[in-house]
Amino acid sequence: MFRYVGKRLVLMLVSLWLIASLTFVLMHSIPGDPFTSEKKLPKQTLENLKAKYGLDKPLPVQYVQYLGNLAMFDLGISIKSTTRTVNDILEEGFPVSAHLGIQSILVALVAGIVMGMIAAARQNRMSDYILMVLAVIGLSVPAFVLAPLFQKYFGMNWNLLPVWGWGEFEKTILPSIVLAFSPLALVTRLMRSSMLEVIGQDYIRTARAKGLPPIRVISRHTLRNAIIPVVTIMGPLTASILTGSFVVEQIFAIPGLGKYFVESITNRDYPVIMGVTIFYSAFLILMNFLVDLLYGWIDPRIKLSGKEAS
Amino acid sequence: MGKGISRGIAFLAILSMVVLAACGGGNSADKAGTGELAEKQEITLGNIPSEPPGLDPLQAKDSVSGDILAQTMVGLTKMGKNGEAIPGIAEKWDANEDMTKITFHLRDAQWSNGDPVTAEDFEYAWKRMLDPKNGAVYAYQLFYLKNGEKYNKGKAKADDVGVKAVDDKTLEVELEQPTPYFLSLTTFYSLRPVPKKVVEKNKDWASEADSYVCNGPFKVKSWKHDAKIVLEKNDKYYDADKVKLTQINLPFIAEPKTGYQMFQTGDVDSSNSNIVPTDLTKKLLDSGEAKGAPQIATYTVEFNTKKKPFNNKKVRKAFSLAIDRKQIVENVLEGGQEPANGWVPWGMPDFAAGKDFAEVHGKYIEPTAQADEAKKLLEEGLKEEGLEKMPEMTYLYNTDDGHKKIAEALQQMWKENLDVNVKLGNVEWKVFLERKTAGDFDFARFGWLPDYIDPMTFMDVYMTDSGNNDTKFSNKKYDELIKKAKSTADQKVRMKALHDAEDILMDEMPVAPLYWYTRVYMDKDYVKNVYRAIDGSVYYEEAYLTEK
Question: Membrane-crossing residues (chain A) (predicted)?
């Protein structure tokens, strides 16, 4: 077990280094730089600016410097907001995105598992069909359609909930639900299909045959086996939802991290691009690792050993 | 059992929403007020889309910072109704005849921390802006100062720069050449002062509310990064008696639809177009909920004059004549814009004639398409270039719905009126800029906003060595006229030269102006006296609210 964890940690660091290097190369290979603008700057001003941010040095030098700073957890200063460090941006934005994300994940997970189970238990009946139609809608209606609709009805027409901002719990309700929609649908569908598969297994028949009450069959035998696929997607899902959504945060005016994934690239804000990419990747890698550990706990058949690590 | 659970969840969800809604804020109907001053003078604006890059005049390089600095910092002068400079921190000033030496006399004014605003603060701020180490984007706005550009290039010392605090209240400025519009530049946020004592102690003074010190009608009360800035009345402001608003809330609203909803529910009282969804602009203008005013800016098509056959002026003119500008304005944009009849847009004053520069020069371009003349010119032009027919050219624009609609309308007009097939190409913003700079385009969209209030800010774009001249247009006579206008402070001579230059520009047509911009804004009925200056800056200094 410890050998396994150790090996995984080394692999995680290598992946991170690869991601950082690739991002660095790709980022510098797209046209434009942080200072390209419609009003062209005098040559000298441009040179002064580049010198200030160390962009005048050859790329390999910049690369080595960046990795050096990265090792010290110093992600540099945003070129657009010149007084904010990337660490500041992450420290201030991540808790907000994560708060929103955790609420959404909880909604998606709890409701998704329950709805998936219901659909499976009542296969090919009305409630199954309704739930599956809802799931298709949930997966196919994008947040930028759903969010304004929610704003219009819950905010404007019925005046039930605030439609923008951050700070109080009630402000988090609408965005959490919008953000939960697509993972909820995903979890429901996954849960339904794997439940159906498990229900047909011999050991379930055995459990039923020996007279266990249905609720015990489901909770002890079916659920535990059927939940594996859901756990699998939880890794990447958690990572992506907790690090913020550009669309949802923009529409509900939430000061999260989501916008930096998009805006940093539009602005060619190199330190921010690197910072958020590395942060997200690290988070994703970590989540996948946790999921792998979870497998072993949920399903003892899955063994973790140094050999199996991949 | 399953049903029970799902019903339970649904019920809980609805219940929690209802309960929470009870704690939510109420709505306020907005009827025409009674006209009486409201008791609570707190306003919320919708014009800030995202965290400003900085509230230090040195870092400010965009309209968002500009909008906030308009409330927190006052420069030597303020902008008057016609773009002229009126007293700000400088009570009065005197200049020599050719406007190369200006002496500003400062009034008694204080920073929000109680320190006096001195001439030294201005000298320090300007030299800091020019210091190459600081890499200020807007350093070029101070290149008019004697040795300003040289200092920024590292070829002169700070002491050589033409700005000097003679004493606490007197600032002497020396310019490289006669620059009548330098006064109008002193209203611009890059030229506003900074509190020297504060900045020297803490270089990050302008990034948090606690350390921010300013000299304007409002100061920063709180700043929650990426979420909201709150301003409050600055009692130390020299004209504080005039300020009626006690607080300005600036939530960052990135999505226009959200902003518009906030306006409807009364969460926002006043804003620029940041909260006007594009597809609603026409509706809101028609209903009077939004208002439009001329904005000094021109939207154009730029030709790459190095690309055959756009090197031929007849071909360029043909493409311009084939455009129905009226249709673009009325059916595509629908925002009250004006078909451009010249390069210098509406609202830009002619300082010799005392009216709009564009009114003086008359019409260079008809608002409707002149198909016959266009066809004839195209034929002649192609013949001169030894071409049988027009090669396929690509019209380049940066990815954006608005630009796309215009590009498609243009494509159709060129097809209809010239029988020419044009390809459309769209690329990401910075790629677009890089390609234009590199000359890697046939023709492309372009928009120009003024740096200061003088027609020069439009006219010197197309000088041969101008960094902004992507058309690579080069005309000796044109350059001479612009240089002539730059060499004197005599407005009559300057304006004459600029008009003559525009004659050449519109005859050669490296650039085909399409329309002049409008500025769309929204104010609730109870919001009064917001000052929207002609350069686009908005001041809430004397604004107030009446009873709803």
Answer: 9-30, 100-120, 129-153, 173-191, 226-252, 272-298
